[in-house]
Amino acid sequence: MAARYRVIYCLNQFFGGLGGEDKAYQPPQLIDGALGPSILLERLFPDIEVVASVVSGDNYLVEKTEAATGEIIALLAPLFEAGDDKKPQLLLAGPAFNAGRYGMACGAICKAVQEHFAIPTVTSMYLENPAVEEYRKDVLIARAGEDVMAMEESLKNMAGLACKLLQGKELLPDRDGYIPQGRRKNYFADKTGAARAVDMLLHKLAGEPFSTEYTMPVFDRVQPAPPVSDMSSARLALVTSGGIVPRGNPDRIEAASASRFGTYSLHGLSAFTGETHQTAHGGYDPTFANEDPNRILPLDVVRELETEGAIGSLHDSYYATVGNGTSVANAEKYGSEIAKILLADGVQAVILTST
Amino acid sequence: MSKQIERAGIPVVHACSIVPISKTVGANRIVPTIAIPHPFGAPDKGPEEEKKVRKELVQKALRALATPISQQTVF
Q1: What mean pLDDT comes out for the span A155-176?
Q2: What is the dihedral of CA A29, A11, B22, A278, to 10 degrees?
Q3: Which of B1, B8, B72 is closest, CB to CB, to A352?
Q4: What is the pLDDT of residues A113-124, one digit of tens each?
Q5: CB-based contact (8 Å) between A305 and chain B?
Q6: CATH architecture assigned to A5-176
């Protein structure tokens, strides 16, 4: 049997089997051999040998990115002191699916490792993962499904891409299932650019499908709104994606991929307490939020500032959803609906909190 | 959500713990907060000190809302 590809595999605390949100601050650790999803990967791709796994807590990596990637490089350094036939050849991270923190962590690890050790890296994410925009130009990101249900197909896609990369084969985003990095490739075409452009135009005029050779980037940016001129007379509203809801979660907002937002009265409330409110969010350790929900949405001090006259008044309801894996389309819909209500009530400023 | 509300003409300050996510998503006024499971909390401090820290952070958010900006700004 030919030598297998030697791969390092990076996982977060969930997929690495360390634990849940209570382990989200775990510093990186190095474990021999395959672990969790990479056991399945070795089974699917017998050519791949996972020589070591790195497991890190999501919060640790995202809150202290530079220090954490430095620690990972230090953990991996001894592996690269081995002879050429023992050195790792590639690093894989994820799939991170649509998980924002995990995506950011995978992107940061891949970028740091490929720069430091000069080996290729591949990660895997759902197209809407916020880390895609941050890392796609620097890191090869294989397309993944939206959540863990798509583990096997996402692993196959990522590892297929990795094998081609190690074999030195040419890669193309559409054909090889990765997210375009915005690079141009030269090739010999049968027809000149002028003839191809006219072909496209003819298709367009005939209402037939055609595909552009140069996709224009889509920037969904909003012009910053003018500032509040006098905060002491302004009406403020509170919105959160941190999942603060009345106890019992009356609207049953989902812990992940929320399909709705809730509108909850602030009338007569001077602060949230652990008795009146809780978090419905499944993407962080709820201990601190359930103890004191003002840690997520700071109603107590906003009320104080209202009494002191630092703000004019507070809108009578707050709006909450769970930002954990929620699709962009749904988030936009909630934002538009909330905006309409706020405009109708003359709200002039919004504090939106996220975990 | 931040963008849709701002699109309606109301300034939004996005107070969050993972600033790179807020930046890529496209919030305009960004205030970094304390930690992912407690953006406006400091559980290691006593209740009074924690509330003080929280108030300062909200005041910072209010200042961000009152600051003219022409592009995405992290306060």
Answers
A1: 93
A2: -90
A3: B1
A4: 999 999 999 999
A5: yes
A6: 3-Layer(aba) Sandwich (3.40)
